[in-house]
Write a structure and sequence with these properties.
The protein is mainly beta. It has no helices and 10 strands. It has a 3-stranded antiparallel beta sheet, with no helix packed on it. The protein has a 3-stranded antiparallel beta sheet with strand order 7-9-10, with no helix packed on it. Strand 2 and strand 3 form a beta hairpin.
Amino acid sequence: MVLRTSVPDSGPGNYYVVVNSICGQLQSNSINVSVSSIENVSISNNQIICAPEEVQLSATGGVSYQWSPSYAMNFTSIPDPIVNPEITTTYSVMITDQNGCSAKLKYW
C-alpha cells in the first residue's frame, strides 16, 4: 500500500489522501481545513512585587484561563488572580477562546 498526500504550503485548504493498494486500486478522500487563530488576548503589564505585597494579574480575551505556576496565587483558573510570591516568579497564562483556540502569554 502506498500513501500519497497533497498538502497546501500553509494555511487553510483541501487536504487529500490517495491510497494505492498492491492490486492497483486507488481510493481517495479529502477534507477542507480552515485555520482559526486566537485574537484580542492580552495581559496586564509586567510588575515588580516586593514581599509581602499582593498584586492582581489580569488577562483578557478568552472564555477560560489557566495560570501557572500556582505558587503564591489565590486561583489558577480565573482571568485576574492575586499573587504574593516571596521569590522571583515568572507567571504564564493559557487563554482559550470560544472556538477552542489557545494562546500562552507570560509575565517576565
